[in-house]
Amino acid sequence: MKYIDEFRNPQAVKALVHEIKSISTQKWVIMEICGGQTHSIMKNGLHQLLDGVVELVHGPGCPVCVTPLELIDQAVEIASLPNVIFTSFGDMLRVPGSSKNLLEARSEGADVRMVYSPLEALKLAREHLDKEVVFFAVGFETTAPGNAMAIAQAKKEGLTNFSELISHVLVPPAMTALLSSETNRVQAYLAAGHVCAVMGWEEYEPIAAQFRVPIVVTGFEPLDLLKGILMTVQQLESGKHVVENAYPRAVARKGNQQAKALLQSVFQTIDRKWRGIGIIPQSGWALTPEFAAFDATLKFETGHIKTQEPKECISGEILQGIKKPNQCPAFGTLCTPEHPLGATMVSGEGACSAYFRYHKEV
Amino acid sequence: MCLAIPGKIVKIYTENGLRMGHVNYSGTISEACLEYVPEADMESYVIVHAGFAISVLDEEQARQSLETWDEVTDHLKKQGYTVENAPLTDKTKKD
Ligand code: SF4
Question: Coil, strand, or helix at residue A348?
């Protein structure tokens, strides 16, 4: 496919790996933030090609994995109400809540539907004016423009039967939290290309300066990842710590201006709880008062639902790069993609499921 | 949710006041909202995320990246390294 296959060219992969190896004087610890990048790394065996030179630790950038348990419980509660059509991206349906997941709620009679875009949920709201249509708005800065657009559009059309259960999280505060932690091992970041396609990369510059870590905006194909790693290692070897862009075909310095403008009017920054990590200050988005009528938590009064997470699952440490999935005693035995204990095993982008699919033997 | 790949715009239209389009991924056509990429035109490559185009692919930048990699590969070959054209191990195929 055009603009995809060329970025998987095995010759250039070998050449870039060689280049990285030839400039490294020590083993560097680099975190890729995004779960999509984790998958591409595991699928293409890049971590093995770089063995001994770079340790890649997998970051918390999978929206499904960090959506807190209590939000799943709220989703199940709302979905189970009569007269509600509950809509969600497919990968949220199997995430275990404290008693059941959304698919189980559906088998018990709840009207739960999978959609590919929040605009499909909005369409359902237009078609079913006698029902409440709720969309499970999870994700990072990448899904936010769509979720914001659906709300702005509902308001414009005067649709009062549409709302969103919002669990939006933001990347830069999580990066700061990880670097501030006593257990931090991360020496540099690969920033997620698509988050930066929306937000640009200026907000990373204070982080790179304060913690003296290189941050390189990186894409998802093998060559994009290796280019990002090469630029990161070049900085580490020369003692630099700035933000650079290894994904210029998709990302501009200021990001997507139209999307940022709408995000600013629809969302405000709040403290958010991350599954397995806990509350990170100012790390999420909620609706501004102007759009509060579209907030499902307020509409259905589910804000009181608070849930503790199960003890066995070490996904919190995995999301912070402290442990690898295969260090979890439940990995591959009690916990598999068929019977996940934690969110990092459910999601196709979760580190546990990436290890299970591509890397069981290690 | 997070693996957006570039596709080519093959149709542009308006629906409920929103600029929408059809995006072709090697024969598979998907619908996407184009409100955030007003500069995108027919034949533009866009990166779509959860039903919304969030970025227009800069084809000149893509070409430049590929050229640098070709240079790195050529440079290595000249130094006498064998950079054989072995496929990457795609472990999905095993499962
Ligand atoms: S393998 Fe399962 S139980 Fe262990 S950390 Fe991963 S999701 Fe949690």
Answer: coil
Q: Give residue A344's pLDDT.
A: 85
A95 and A148 inside one domain: yes
Window A:274-333, CB contacts with B under 8 Å: none
Collect all residues with Cβ–Cβ distance below 8 Å to B56 and sequence separation of at least 6: B37, B39, B40, B44, B45, B46, B47
A132 Cβ contact list (under 8 Å, min separation 6): A81, A83, A84, A85, A161, A163, A299
In CATH, the architecture of B5-56 is Roll (2.30)
Print the domain residue range for A343.
315-357
The answer on pLDDT for B52 being more than 90 is yes
CA distance to partner chain B, nearest, from residue A13 (Å): 9
Residues A74 and A49 in one domain: no
Q: Where are the domains of chain B?
A: 5-56, 59-94
DSSP per-residue string spanning A133-183? EEEEEEESTTTHHHHHHHHHHHHHHT--SEEEEEEEE-HHHHHHHHHHSTT
Q: Does the beta carbon of A214 sit less than 6 angstroms from any atom of ligand 1?
A: no
The answer, for A18 touching chain B at a CB cutoff of 8 Å, is yes
- Cross-chain CB nearest to B26 (options A1, A143, A359): A1
Burial of B60 (0-12, 13-18, 19+ CB in 10 A): exposed
Q: Where are the beta strands (DSSP E) in chain A?
A: 28-34, 54-61, 84-88, 111-114, 132-139, 162-169, 188-192, 215-218, 243-245, 267-274, 278-287
- CA-CA-CA-CA dihedral for A348, A102, A272, A300, to nearest 10: 160
pLDDT at position B86 is 47
Helix (H, G, I), strand (E, B) or coil at A302: coil
| Residue A234 vs residues A216, A228, A345: alpha-carbon distances, Å | 11, 10, 34
Burial class (CB in 10 A: 0-12, 13-18, 19+), A79: buried
- CB A310, CB A341: distance < 8 Å: yes
Q: Is the ipTM of this complex over 0.90?
A: no
The residue-averaged pLDDT of A298-323 equals: 84
Residue B7 CA to residue A219 CA, distance in Å, equals: 16
A222-238 vs A10-23: helix axis angle to the nearest 10?
A: 10
Please report the sign of the dihedral spanned by the C-alpha atoms of residue A7, residue A58, residue B54, residue A70.
Answer: positive
* pTM of the full structure: 0.88
Tokens 């949710």 appear where? Answer: B1
Answer whether B25 sits within 8 Å of A1, measured CB to CB.
yes
Q: How many domains does chain A have?
A: 3
